[in-house]
């Protein structure tokens, strides 16, 4: 598994790409790699160009790849990259959990040394 | 574990952490209001925070740095947007250029802290963090990178669970 370095500028692009409902929807659809851009475009009440733009943002973030299959270019979700984004969010959560643990320790130490008075 | 909930919202770029504390509301407020207290919990072991200025009034500033044993150094400046002891505090990363972008390499974030009595005793503290950008989330994590990432490697959730159709 690829581990995200927080200093990796790619993480910024990943979050930007994920901050849009249509793009998240496209990602979910493209897991199986069965859709071309035009097939995707038919599913949304927006222009082909608009869908193509969403796909380009996802591709730029490395969240999807395109592969030539016969006459079609199919869109495929890159599962490793999606995992990286989730890891960053999970990492921030852990950061705060650890802070609260330290607060608990601080309060507990104080209770022991002052008999709970303050 | 006293964290009772963590709400992550990549869409609105917010994260809300709620925790039960074995303390009075006034005591919980001191975690923020007393710089020596703040220094003891903000940074992870090996990367502690040192507070330089600490003026916890609306319009006031808090400046501190974090320094690691490996030479890592990180400065932060926060503006106090609101301070209503002992229940409500709003802080925002303050060191920005004329476009409102952080000019010190820091992430631009805002934090809203609320502290209330908990039913049955103790206090409930909620910290809502607003990230200015996706990069802000990344920056925030970078400051606690070692600590934050170490624990999550083994517990990755289902890949697309967070990207619903």
Fraction in helix of chain B: 10-25%
Poorly predicted regions of chain B: 145-165
- Main beta-sheet annotation of chain A: 3 strands, antiparallel
| CATH architectural grouping of chain B | 2-Layer Sandwich
**How is the main sheet of chain B built?**
8 strands, antiparallel
Q: Which CATH first-tier class of chain B would you pick?
A: Alpha Beta
Radius of gyration of chain B: 16 Å
Strand order of the largest sheet of chain A: 1-3-2
CATH topology of chain B: Alpha-D-Glucose-1,6-Bisphosphate, Chain A, domain 4
CA(first)-CA(last) distance of chain B = 33 Å
Polypeptide structure, described:
The complex is a heterodimer of chains A (118) and B (165). Chain A has helices at residues 10-18, 21-29, 37-41, 48-60, 79-114, and strands at 35-36, 64-69, 72-77. By secondary structure, chain A is mainly alpha-helical. Chain A has one domain (10-114): Arc Repressor Mutant, subunit A (Orthogonal Bundle), CATH 1.10.10. A 3-stranded antiparallel sheet of chain A has the order 1-3-2. Chain B has 165 residues and is an alpha+beta fold. Chain B has one domain (3-155): Alpha-D-Glucose-1,6-Bisphosphate, Chain A, domain 4 (2-Layer Sandwich), CATH 3.30.530.20. Chain B is built from 4 helices and 8 strands. Chain B has helices at residues 25-33, 35-41, 134-143, 145-150, and strands at 3-9, 14-21, 49-54, 61-67, 73-84, 88-93, 109-117, 123-131. In chain B, strands 1-2-8-7-6-5-4-3 form an 8-stranded antiparallel sheet. The chains are: A mainly alpha (118), B alpha+beta (165). Chains A and B meet through helix 1, helix 2 and helix 5 of A and strand 1, strand 2, helix 2, helix 3 and helix 4 of B.
